[in-house]
Amino acid sequence: MLEACTNQADLRLVLLRPGKEDDEPIQRIVPEPGVRPGSGARVLVVSQNNTAVYLPARSGAQPRVDVIDETGATVSSTLLAKPPSTSAVASRTGNLVTWWTGDALLVFDAGNLTQRYTIAAGETTAPVGPGVMMAGQLLVPVTGGIGVYDPVSGANNRYIPVTRPPSTSAVIPAVSGSRVIEQRGDTLVALG
């Protein structure tokens, strides 16, 4: 979790791991110099040993996603072209973690949080939410449809047309049997 302390200007990442005693977790504090409360920094996902954290631009550096291991060391950084949308959302699906930034989808390995690929906006389509696995394929809600992607390479296999009303919030997909269910704001829609 990211924590703000009253006597410090910057946020710090607090990593919690189970301790030898059931009631005492092991804490590791990771300072985040220059990252202030209210900056938009956030924990995206925690795997067994790694934590992915979005860090906004600071001191001339680009916004990025840092993957921090259990010792507090940064094991990888993924630079972002711009800050994510305020409605950005991450989801875990199969052996992947997808993070919709507002106009692109970053796809990470769920085990170690290594970035695999990015599904960026194209000429006619752009991701409009995180992905979900179905029948061995990564389904991603995109402008005017659902993109079907190879989960290993990120290659687009095809598009399935879907009509949706315009929205700035994420379209969050889920799978139930042979149906894809989309959460569009406060509305649930079953497809298929």
Short description:
This protein is an all-beta fold and 192 residues long. The chain is built from no helices and 18 strands. It has a 4-stranded antiparallel beta sheet, with no helix packed on it. Strands 8-9-10-11 form a 4-stranded antiparallel beta sheet, with no helix packed on it. Strands 12-13-14-15 form a 4-stranded antiparallel beta sheet, with no helix packed on it.
Keywords, please?
192 residues, mainly beta, Lipocalin, 4-stranded antiparallel beta sheet, 18 strands
Q: What features would you describe in this structure?
A:
By secondary structure, this protein is mainly β. The protein folds into two domains: 1-83, no CATH class; 88-192, Lipocalin (Beta Barrel), CATH 2.40.128. The chain contains no helices and 18 strands. It has strands spanning 2-4, 11-17, 26-31, 42-46, 50-55, 64-69, 74-79, 89-93, 96-100, 105-109, 115-119, 132-134, 137-142, 145-149, 156-161, 171-176, 179-184, 187-191. The strands form five sheets. A four-stranded antiparallel beta sheet has the order 4-5-6-7, with no helix packed on it. The chain starts with a strand and ends with a strand. The model has no long low-confidence stretch (mean pLDDT 92).
